[in-house]
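User: I'm curious what two different proteins look like when written out as structure tokens. Can you demonstrate?

Assistant: Sure. I'll show them one after the other, since each token string lines up with its own sequence. Here's the first protein:
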Amino acid sequence: MRYLFEDYSFDTERRELRQGTDAVSITPQVFDLLVYLIRNRERVVSKDDLISAVWTGRIVSDAALTTRLNAARNAIGDSGEKQRLIKTLPRRGFRFVGTVREAPMCASTATVACPGDQSDAVPGGAVAHGPDPQSDDGVSILNLLSPPRLSIVVLPFVNLSGDPEQEYFVDGVTESLTTDLSRISGSLVIGRHTAFTYKGKTVDLKKIGRELNVRYVLEGSVQRSGNRLRVNVQLVDAESGNHLWAERFDKPIADLFDMQDEIVARLANALGAELIAAEARRAEHSVNPDATDLYFQGIAFANKGTTPEYLTQARSFFERALALDPGCVEALVGRAGLDEATAIALLTDDPAPHLAVAEATLDKVLSQAPQHALAHLRLGIVLVITNRITQGIAECERALVLDPNLAHAHAWIGLAKVYVGHAAETEAYVQEALRLSPRDARSYIWLMIVGIAKCHLDDDVEAVAWLRRSIEANRNHPLVHFFLAAALARLGAVDEAKRAARAALALNPSFTIRRARCLLPSDNPIYLAGRERFYEGLSLAGVPEG
């Protein structure tokens, strides 16, 4: 069938969208979403309707759905503000409201029809669906398609304890991890009911990857021995069979349900970072990267450290992603994070414009994706840094309601406590972040936050210990070197302080004490007294006044 609206022609057999005579580039999944909306244009379709039809009921985050809707709107010249063709009805769903005429299909060679659940384009735009069509040699058509990005199945963990009563705990870890991984924006996680069909079977991970059309397989085991619990996990590239990452937790047993929460949180956070890094490596070799490929590469550079060089490289990828897809929510949030970092890391003499741009971007994102946890957190950070601390903490807490594993939110609440003169409370928040994600790519920031709190408590010995831990985690964050220089200088270790200052200035050559005074997130007198000690230490360490 061909559907005609405005100056667009939408051919479901050829799987083509044209504006006039020009073909419009569109991914298979976005095509399927448009098909469903247009075919059901007489009614409002719910989010669940779309997920059931386009993703065949698989777990999909709100952010992923919003990104696809924005891409569909962009493809047909619509926008989230105008909603000329695709209208969002709050708390109800979505409806295609454009005037549509139906025309006979153009003669063509048939492709496999939609709806499908693929996010990658494939030759001819074919998308597998429905009851798993077979080719002549018995191989599923799905196996001929490229698996979607961030697609993963969590296989049922194996109970090695020899105690059948522990089975509920092992299954609980598997199920909770499946749910938590679905919070990774843009991820496609095979539902637990499908995953559990493999329980107790000897499996070929590459074969599972082909059967389920996923890029990654996670498998693990749980063993209880006496009063200790050991959990082993490994992430496997389902296409090559290569092991990408492995982890082991071995600790005394406390409350099993508390342990389950901690294990799942740690795994979900670590896996999120590993999956994005793996996707970024794939994207490096892509001949025609799309917005999502470019977003992953931007995140990879942003995770390397907070230097002008890394932030510039990350920004270039986010900007390229947005040039391809102006509604790419994740790239918008990523770019807002860079604006924040530029101000917070004191890489500029005028932080206010960067923070204003970040806030405007995040407000726009949250108007389109109100359940986006990271956007709430980033908005919270802007509010905290601009002396709206109570509001900022509330946004961080909102982010944690949406994603309890968002460890970075705990750390930022801890830093906010410094700004209101309660630095003694900070360490507990950071310890919670580290409990949830001890090997997080951002842990160096959290360790620095405790170091800053210790400086404000006039405990420079402890501050130095925490700041050195931060540098060991990531040496590419100039601000921590400046705080270390100040703390060492106040302890009388002036030569060592000057070495730390030189290391800081090598990463941020334009830094001055005057610049440090430009970003003042609080007028709390206790906080201001601590800042004066910081300026004094910088001066003793030989940092330029500016």
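Here's a second, unrelated protein for contrast:
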Amino acid sequence: MSAIASKKKACEAMETKHKVAAKKLIQEVRRDYEVFVQGKASLDFLFMRWGNCMKGLRLIEKGILSTGAPSEEKLKSHRELAELLISFSATISLSAERHLQNNDPLDEAEKASLKEKIDLVKRHRKILEFEFKGWHGQLSREKLEEVSQRISGVTDSKAA
């Protein structure tokens, strides 16, 4: 086998591996979001999963960038994942803020810890939105709402 053919085969294997990883991460984010919406997960669990999702996104981006010019399929998967994470971050932040407002008995240490986590997710969201523009162009609020509705199974009455 020539060196070029071997290198091409290795690149194809890496691309397949990254596709599988991207699809798995998208499925995990969707599953976690559905669990969240149904109210079956704690905020601590969501913040932990958020951190894992961000790490996963960064690994996928590193893989995409290491293979040179990304394919349209990779860019599409990345776009979908980034849209989901941006939408998910807003939901986590809002829910945690409401939890703070509705739970006065929380002690000061718990409140401070939760506020730090909320601030971290909000900073991540700003970074994701900024990076999204670099990867895919402007993300409109309408598109984010559409993604949120698609995740939660809500459809536009005009489309029906």
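A detail about the second structure: Residues 3-152 form one domain.
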